[in-house]
Specification:
By secondary structure, this protein is of the alpha+beta class. The protein has six helices and 20 strands.
Length: about 300
């Protein structure tokens, strides 16, 4: 049974040209339905009069639903701020691709009204977690909805790495880095690096070496319970660990990174018409351009 929604929080990029009209639409729906609306303080300059604001981290504790207005970057930022709260996340596309954002801004009014009436379901998406170990101590940790990426620092040189799965070494190799992705992130950097597309419901993690200088080091799909380790033997000017392309930790020679599926999932709001393969076809142009009359083929 869907949770009752008494308060909605909004995240977004205030620089988006369609942001003021989208916010006005949400405010109108909330006023019509008696739903409280709170916005991220970063949106203060483009909000309709009378909408309350809070810092992002405080907002999450005061709402029953978060609406992310923008593209995939906004969705990923919102998912990171939501953390372990379990608050559902609805994505509204104000950008171009918007693979994670289900709702076109033109349908915002009806979609939000449908959510408030209970006409939706929650799609539980796994996250990936990493702990960074140096000299026997954990010095950093990170989690992501799409992917965690280890790659080169400021200079374009290869990294010397060793990959281990469940304590067994797959070998030491040179390359530009490694992507550890969730099924949700399989259509992001992992796809560009030659990794496989994976349905969001498959319980797994994806390991995609970036430009490995080794014919035998290919992308892998592993069980969600697999312990994935990456040992950095030589990083040159220093490698970095990046979470969802937004949060970065600087790494050093000898660092050991341990990846696993995170303990808590992200709850994405979906509608009856939502379909993984339909989204893949339309937003990634799967199968190429269709001829007239082939839409239902």
């Amino acid at each position: 049974m869907n949770r009752s929604i008494a308060a909605i929080g909004v995240f977004g990029n205030p620089q988006k040209s369609r942001m003021p009209s989208a916010l006005a639409t949400i405010a109108a729906v909330c006023e019509r339905t008696g739903t409280r609306l709170v916005a991220d303080a970063e949106l203060a300059a483009v909000l309709p009069t009378g909408v309350a604001t809070l810092p992002a981290e405080e907002l999450v504790d005061r709402v029953d639903l978060v609406v992310a207005l923008g593209g995939d970057g906004t969705m990923l930022r919102a998912a990171r701020v939501l953390g372990l709260s379990g608050v559902p996340l609805l994505g509204v596309n104000l950008g171009s691709l918007g693979y994670l954002t289900d709702v076109p801004v033109e349908e915002l009014d009806t979609a939000l009204a449908s959510v408030l009436a209970g006409g939706y379901h929650l799609d539980q998406r796994s996250r990936v977690y990493c702990s960074v170990w140096r000299d026997g101590r954990r010095i950093a940790q990170a989690s992501a909805l799409n992917d965690l990426v280890v790659n080169m620092g400021p200079l374009p040189r290869a990294l010397d790495m060793e990959l281990r799965l469940d304590e067994d070494s797959l070998g030491r190799f040179l390359g530009d880095g490694v992507i550890i992705a969730t099924p949700t992130g399989s259509t992001a950097y992992n796809l560009s690096a030659g990794g496989p597309i994976c349905h969001s419901a498959v319980p797994c993690l994806l390991v995609a070496p970036i430009c490995p200088h080794a014919l035998g080091m290919r992308p892998l799909v592993v069980s969600k319970d697999t312990k994935i380790e990456l040992v950095l033997h030589e990083t040159g000017e220093g490698a970095v660990l990046t979470a969802d392309g937004q949060k970065t930790n600087v790494l050093q020679d000898g660092d050991r990174l341990v990846f696993r599926e995170a303990n808590r999932e992200v709850s994405l709001v979906k509608f009856p018409q939502s379909n993984f393969y339909r989204v893949m076809r339309h937003k990634l142009d799967w199968g190429g351009t269709r001829r007239a009359g082939q839409e239902g083929a």
